[in-house]
Amino acid sequence: RKALRIHAYGNDVPPLAQSAHQLSEAHGLRPYLYQNMMTAGYHELTRVQMQAVPALLAGRELLACAPTGSGKTAAFVVPMLQRLGSSARRRGGGGGAPRGPRAVLVAPTQELARQTHREVLKLAAGGKVSVALLTRKMVTAALAEARGGGGGGGGGAPSLVKYDVVVSTPLRLVGLVDRGLLPLQEVRLLVLDEADKLLELGFLEQVDTLLAACSHAEVSRALFSATMLPAIESLADTVLRQPVRVVVGEKNAAAETVEQSLVFVGREDGKMLALRQMIRQGIQPPVLIFVQSPEISRCSSLCSPRRRQKKRGGGGSSQLPPPRPSARALAAAQERAVQLFHELVLDGLRARGMDFKGVKLVVNFDFPQTTVSYIHRIGRTGRAGMRGKAVTFFTEQEARPSLRSIANVMKASGCGVPDWMLRLQPMRKQKRKAIAVKPRSRK
Ligand SMILES: Nc1ncnc2c1ncn2[C@@H]1O[C@H](COP(=O)(O)OP(=O)(O)OP(=O)(O)O)[C@@H](O)[C@H]1O
């Protein structure tokens, strides 16, 4: 553990398993699961998996904090599938009618729930575990079914209670639980992914309902995130029974595989110039760009920098200076770069946990307002051991509240930052005003 910088706390922490093979030897991994791990390329386990999987297999409660892109999803999916085993028993094999799911995976956004569902399906292939992603359509169908008087053996909507695993956002689950349509008393594993977000005010009440509804004496709860602030950690402590706590590397740190840099852009309009400059110098798609809010107009103004460039030239391409061959070549290259540019303009919450494949560069077009949001945003690159880059633009005004703390995150992960940034006086945080969609100079 020391060599791998895996910090584990708690009583009788189970020993590490470093590979799928070792896991199989020590825990008799089900053949289909072992096979699926091999197919997925999970021969070696990631550091969080090494400790979290044995802990969850032992039925322990767990609080795990590990960097973005470090395989936390499989860290709970693998032990969950192993623990569930064959569901043949439940489907008329002598266990009686199903009485609701035996595992529930909760994520803060529907996008993330969908991604987690895909990971479960991938690792569950060939097994007999049934998995449902709770969609709006399913909820509507369950409500209609309930109105039509369909009674499941366990009292819930029959179409839902048959699943072994349910993946969902909290609100959808609670909607069904509150109406008695999805009983959770059979749940043996409840996972809160992005737990610090789920324990924040906006979600807390719903999560509380779910914790209470998973009332089986043998239920174990597992909380995963790349960030865990002390207040949230204390809250987690009040929920979990003698948990194993796992921290991989430094707590609340950026992934070491991301090369981070800050770019001062002067004023708001400097951002587009800086972005264009980056494209001109050559970028490797796909690229993710983060803005402060998901306003469509702000996104679309970012999506066609070339068009805006023409407009600034006076309206039409004829008014642009005549291109010299090198300029034309540059323009063509720039056009190609723009076409190749896979823009996904996101706000922080929707990006949390998303595993966009092969993102080489993250641009924080608008400065993140907290270090937590910074860590999650830049964590969309440098995943699964790959390397990535993150460039953060800042103006004097918007960076002031969190520049020092973000500079500290950068320093902690070995990136160079000027000393003056680390010496900035801490400021009382103020809610930043909405950023104007159009720079003032172009009204
Ligand atoms: N043992 C493994 N070996 C190789 N790749 C793995 C392994 N486990 C997971 N991965 C891959 O690592 C990538 C990141 O995994 P995952 O999305 O679970 O990260 P995460 O830790 O949940 O990140 P975040 O904190 O951003 O949510 C995925 O593409 C996944 O397929």
Automatic annotation (TrEMBL):
Residue segments, region Disordered: 301-329
Keyword RNA-binding: yes
Domain Helicase ATP-binding: 53-246
E.C. no: 3.6.4.13
Catalytic activity reported: ATP + H2O = ADP + phosphate + H(+)
Keywords, sorted A to Z: ATP-binding, Helicase, Hydrolase, Nucleotide-binding, RNA-binding
Any one GO BP annotation for this protein: maturation of SSU-rRNA
Residues covered by the Helicase C-terminal domain: 257-425
Any Pfam family: DEAD
InterPro entries linked to this entry: DDX52/Rok1_DEADc, DEAD/DEAH_box_helicase_dom, DEAD_box_RNA_helicase, Helicase_ATP-bd, Helicase_C-like, P-loop_NTPase, RNA-helicase_DEAD-box_CS
Keyword Nuclease (UniProt): no
Assigned protein family: Belongs to the DEAD box helicase family. DDX52/ROK1 subfamily.
Protein's recorded name: RNA helicase
Organism for this UniProt entry: Emiliania huxleyi
